[in-house]
Amino acid sequence: MVVLNKIYTRTGDAGDTALGNNERVAKYAPRVAAYGTADELNAQVGVARLQADAETDAALMRIQNDLFDLGADLCRPEMEKDAEAEYPPLRVIQAQVDRLEAEIDVMNADLAPLRSFILPGGTPLAAHLHVCRTVARRAERLAVELAAQEPVNPAAVKYLNRLSDWFFVAARVANGGGQKDVLWVPGANR
User: What is the mean pLDDT of each run of 10 residues along the chain (190 residues)?
Assistant: First the structure.
């Protein structure tokens, strides 16, 4: 259980922070950048929820919870020692990826196939979901970069990849099932 009774600790005043295993690293470390961007994404999802109907809001709330799971996963580096840990770390699992895929399939079933890329925008909710999509892609890039340097849960990377797809399809749904999508016209302003 997390207890936060004092918000400031002064322990990071010198530019470092503690990971989930209590190891101290620079605040600009790749691992901190990855889970910090997941946190930023979570805040963007909170903004999107302000525009959402009840069903979409519930899905976005599930995603926010998953993003906290993802942050907990990324802030705890030692995957090979997980089984030995006094408190087993929280890891993203394949079922979370599978849920996103199933939701994407349901949302996408009634959408017309795209014949062009779409410009981010349309309705306010769609615009917010496109921002979420781009932040999810950045979080994924940072997680992949981290994974090139040290162990990262592969399901966490898959989750971020699928999540950006989820936001894309959800934005199309929010655009009246794609009716308000703004299509890219290559070279239109030459």
Answer: 70 74 83 96 98 97 98 87 79 97 97 92 97 98 97 96 98 95 92
- Single pTM value for the model: 0.91
List the CATH number of the domain containing 160: 1.20.1200.10
Q: Is residue 5 part of a domain?
A: no
What residue numbers bound the domain in which 88 lies?
Answer: 17-24+34-182
DSSP assignment of the chain, as one string?
Answer: ----S-S--STTTTSEEE-TTS-EEETTSHHHHHHHHHHHHHHHHHHHHTT--HHHHHHHHHHHHHHHHHHHHHT---GGGGGG-SSPPP---HHHHHHHHHHHHHHHTTSPPPSS-EES-SSHHHHHHHHHHHHHHHHHHHHHHHHTTS---HHHHHHHHHHHHHHHHHHHHHTTTTTT-EE--TTTT-
Question: How many domains, in total, are found in the chain?
Answer: 1
Read off the pLDDT of residues 114-165 as tens digits, 9 standing for 90 and up: 888 999 999 999 999 999 999 999 999 999 999 999 999 999 999 999 999 9
